[in-house]
């Protein structure tokens, strides 16, 4: 069920989009200051498909760590941007990119030891079974390649994806991103399953939400096998980010992933959101669940925002594709991009950012649960490491999504210079996903801003 809030505050059934929930709309222009209004009008040159955050868009001009500054010098706490994973403008990443750019940048059909060194280093963070890696520029490209590789290996066409999943924006990947289905045509062989909603199912364990989800995946596989489409597998963000952030207890979804293998399908682990230590409990999201996927995809967080991404694979799965089809990505994994990615891995280790994510994330959720005692609109606090979902409800008893409250809350937070956004089918879950530079000392500021915003909204 999807919802919207009517003019009188009533929550009603509607449609939602991860792109349209927290977005500037034309009717907001009248309330803008002259400069901001002029910039929003100039953005028409980019076409109408683009979206801006907030009813009063923010013009950010610089950042450092988990903080950013606007054109007027106002400082903001960034609770949203996972792309600069080790922090905005991290000096080691900046230096690595500048150094390599001053020496050489070219395509990937020449030998370059740094590319091979990084490939070995990246694979060293994964299970031994994952022993091949191909570099691309974006997570969309990585998932596009993974879908093709998986189909080649299995001979099947039909993938399973979760109901609000977003995996990228190529034609193939958009057709396997159900969160876009209001504006994009889904692949006719795609099967869509709901995520394991740990809040409404009442358990984050394999016996609770995990068992429920196992049944949904089993039903989808059975339907594919009876249809003759041919089962390719499951593409999955194990944090269920766009679905509303349901990381669950470690191992919660393991049985469902094992079932995919038992029926000859492959599992694509889309690690753009949970990867690179964000969950704190493991370096990779799939690793939290004790499972080895067949294909692993990453996105721009691996380069702190520099355009580099990857598809890692089991050798036998990749060979079915690679021995039949040449693949060339001009700048995927070029020397400058690899320098950025190597610096990110080095910073993650040297600064202990995975361990910090685990401890600081736990402190943050404890503080948010305490705040919930004073604000009944906080229905649930869930997550792991530096990935937290704060579910806003209109009614705690019925768990009715508080979509209108959540969207107004974002604007209140923006005015208090705290940046985040929403996710989930009803745009009612605040996605708290800061750069890993976020520290325990930042928590009181977030809590104070949330407390003031919820108080101002009377919830």
Describe the structure concisely.
Belongs to the class-III pyridoxal-phosphate-dependent aminotransferase family. It holds the Pfam family Aminotran_3. This protein has 2 domains: 3-85 and 358-457, Aspartate Aminotransferase, domain 1 (Alpha-Beta Complex), CATH 3.90.1150.10; 91-350, Aspartate Aminotransferase, domain 2 (3-Layer(aba) Sandwich).
Give the amount of beta strand, in percent.
15-25%
Structural class by sheet pairing and helices: alpha/beta
The oligomerization state is single chain
CATH architectural category of the largest domain = 3-Layer(aba) Sandwich
Estimate nothing, just give the exact number of structural domains. Answer: 2
**Mean pLDDT value:** 94
Cα-atom radius of gyration: 22 Å
- Give the beta-strand count: 18
- Which CATH class of the largest domain is shown? Alpha Beta
Question: Which word captures the global form?
Answer: globular
What strand line-up does the widest sheet have?
Answer: 6-12-11-10-9-7-8
CATH-level-4 superfamily name of the largest domain: Type I PLP-dependent aspartate aminotransferase-like (Major domain)
Distance between the termini: 23 Å
Biggest β-sheet: count, sense, barrel? 7 strands, mixed
Count of discrete alpha- or pi-helical segments spanning 4 or more residues: 14
CATH domain topology of the largest domain: Aspartate Aminotransferase, domain 2
Low-confidence stretches: 1-16
- Helical percentage: 25-40%
């Amino acid at each position: 069920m999807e919802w919207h809030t009517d003019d009188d505050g009533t929550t009603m059934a509607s449609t939602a989009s991860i792109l349209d929930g927290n977005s500037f709309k034309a009717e907001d222009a009248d309330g803008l200051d002259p400069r901001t209004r002029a910039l929003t009008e100039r953005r028409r040159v980019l076409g109408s498909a683009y979206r801006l955050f907030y009813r009063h868009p923010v013009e950010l001009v610089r950042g450092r760590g988990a903080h950013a500054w606007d054109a007027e010098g106002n400082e903001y706490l960034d609770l949203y941007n996972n792309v600069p994973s080790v922090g905005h403008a991290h000096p080691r990443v900046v230096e690595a990119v500048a150094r390599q750019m001053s020496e050489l940048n070219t395509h990937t059909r020449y030998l370059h030891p740094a590319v091979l060194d990084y490939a070995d280093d990246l694979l060293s963070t994964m299970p031994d079974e994952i022993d091949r890696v191909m570099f691309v520029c974006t997570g969309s490209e990585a998932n596009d390649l993974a879908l093709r590789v998986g189909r080649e290996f299995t001979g099947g066409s039909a993938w399973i994806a979760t109901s609000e999943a977003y995996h990228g924006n190529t034609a193939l990947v958009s057709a396997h991103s159900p969160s876009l289905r209001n504006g994009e045509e889904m692949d006719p062989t795609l099967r869509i399953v709901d995520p394991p909603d740990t809040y409404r199912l009442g358990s984050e364990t394999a016996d609770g939400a995990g068992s429920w989800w196992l049944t949904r995946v089993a039903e989808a596989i059975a339907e594919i096998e009876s249809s003759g489409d041919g089962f390719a597998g499951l593409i999955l963000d194990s944090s269920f980010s766009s679905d509303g952030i349901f990381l669950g207890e470690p191992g919660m979804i393991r049985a469902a992933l094992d079932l995919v293998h038992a029926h000859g399908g492959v599992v694509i682990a889309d690690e753009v959101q949970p990867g690179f230590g964000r969950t704190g409990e493991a370096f990779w999201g799939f690793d939290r669940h004790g499972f080895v996927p067949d294909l692993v995809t990453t996105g721009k967080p691996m380069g702190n925002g520099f355009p580099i991404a990857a598809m890692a694979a089991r050798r036998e799965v990749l060979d079915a594709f690679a021995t039949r089809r040449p693949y060339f990505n001009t700048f995927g994994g070029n020397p400058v991009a690899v320098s950025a990615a190597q610096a990110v891995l080095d910073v993650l280790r040297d600064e202990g950012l995975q361990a910090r994510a685990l401890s600081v994330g736990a402190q943050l959720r404890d503080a948010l649960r305490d705040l919930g005692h004073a604000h009944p609109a906080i229905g649930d606090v869930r997550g792991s490491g530096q990935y937290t979902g704060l579910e806003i409800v209109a009614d705690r008893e019925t768990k009715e999504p508080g979509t209108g409250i959540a969207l107004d809350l974002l604007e209140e937070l923006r005015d208090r210079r705290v940046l985040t956004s929403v996710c989930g089918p009803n745009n009612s879950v605040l996605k708290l996903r800061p750069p890993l530079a976020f520290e325990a000392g930042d928590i009181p500021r977030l809590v104070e801003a949330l407390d003031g915003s919820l108080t101002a909204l009377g919830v």
